[in-house]
Design a protein that fits this description.
single chain, alpha/beta, 5-stranded mixed beta sheet, globular
Length: about 210
């Protein structure tokens, strides 16, 4: 009886709370899906590449209204259960694309992490099952949402890296949103100084305006 109930169990979308349709390409990619295909399409996946200096950057979505709404619910309203919905659908592809890379997440405010009980960037990218090295930290604990555009452009000045040896390592820098690029540019320089063999950047989203410049 229990086995029959288990077989009959249907995955529920964490966003719309509707049953996730089975026997689809989406359900095949995600054994235990937490987002339905309809909600995923509202994120507007684009899977684009661009470059920062000589480093290849890859972003999955533009920072549209739906992405902004769900990201705020996740990190601003502390809705931890949403951690999987942003990258889940592409996790298999990304694990292959960045095989042998070590994740270095963008740091956030220690106060924010303490208030919400988790670091949103780390939890979001844990779905990739790649080794994570939390070696970069902020020296000034200010949320980017509280900063002006000019202040955001200088946020990279407040980042430091641990005394680590990254020689012969492939490093994947990750962040939730790419805005001015200051954070990523600073992170690139920091891991270069520690001898990273190869560097790439993976972003959950990127602001649309920057793409049009």
């Amino acid at each position: 009886m229990q086995s029959q109930q288990s077989k009959a169990k249907t995955d529920i979308c964490k966003i719309c709370f509707n049953p996730i349709e089975q026997n689809t390409f989406h359900s095949l990619l995600c054994k235990h899906a937490t987002i339905c295909h309809e909600c995923l399409l509202k994120f507007g996946p684009v899977l684009n590449t661009f470059k920062v200096d000589d480093i290849e950057c890859f972003h999955i979505y533009f920072y549209n209204e739906k992405v902004q709404e769900l990201l705020y619910q996740f990190k601003g309203c502390y809705d931890y259960e949403l951690y999987s919905v942003f990258l889940e659908y592409y996790s298999s592809y990304l694990n292959i694309k960045f095989k042998d890379y070590e994740i270095v997440p963008a740091p956030s405010s220690k106060k924010s992490d303490k208030d919400r009980g988790f670091n949103h960037v780390e939890e979001m990218f844990k779905t990739l099952r790649l080794k994570m090295n939390k070696c970069i930290h902020k020296t000034k604990q200010r949320k980017q949402a509280d900063l002006t555009t000019k202040e955001r452009e200088k946020i990279g000045d407040y980042l430091v890296i641990d005394d680590v040896n990254l020689s012969n390592k492939k490093i994947l820098l990750v962040d939730d949103v790419y805005t001015t690029g200051s954070t990523i540019k600073s992170m690139i320089q920091l891991v270069k100084q520690k001898g990273a063999k190869k560097i790439k950047v993976l972003l959950m989203s990127k602001t649309i305006d920057l793409e049009k410049r």
